[in-house]
Design goal:
The protein is α+β, with helices and mostly antiparallel strands. Helices cover about 40% and strands about 20% of the residues. The protein has 5 helices and 5 strands; from the N terminus they run E-E-H-E-H-H-H-E-E-H. The strands form 2 sheets. It has a 3-stranded antiparallel beta sheet. A two-stranded antiparallel sheet has the order 1-2. The chain is elongated. Pfam families: DUF771. This is DUF771 domain-containing protein. It comes from Lactiplantibacillus pentosus (Lactobacillus pentosus). InterPro entries: DUF771.
Length: about 110
């Protein structure tokens, strides 16, 4: 018989006394997949967009007039960092992932 190591993971529930038990390997996998506290560079964003080109990402997301207010707000809040033409892009992963999720159906995949 093999003993399982488990961890208690608090879930978003109304009562703080409700928890879910998961094995340690699954918990570590969840931590690895979490976007909290992570940043992306352009290659990470390209990967999340199905390896679309940088040109496609700029035209359809970052420089798209439809999203200019939202992208501008993310830049002002430091969630997207870009110093200008030719400089590297950096994205707050959790915010950018949420943006992609909320606009998924609108993008010309």
């Amino acid at each position: 018989m093999q003993a399982l190591k488990v961890a208690t993971v608090p879930m978003h529930v109304k009562s703080m006394d409700q928890y879910v038990l998961v094995d340690k390997e699954a918990y570590n996998k969840l931590l690895d997949q979490s976007l909290l506290g992570r940043s992306w560079i352009m290659d990470d964003l390209r990967d999340r967009c199905g390896n679309k080109s940088i040109k496609w990402i700029k035209e359809n997301i970052l420089e798209n007039p439809k999203y200019s207010r939202q992208i501008g707000r993310m830049e002002q809040q430091g969630q997207i960092i870009h110093k200008g033409r030719g400089s590297a892009w950096k994205f707050k992963a959790s915010v950018m992932a949420e943006f992609l999720e909320s606009h998924w159906e609108e993008l010309p995949w």
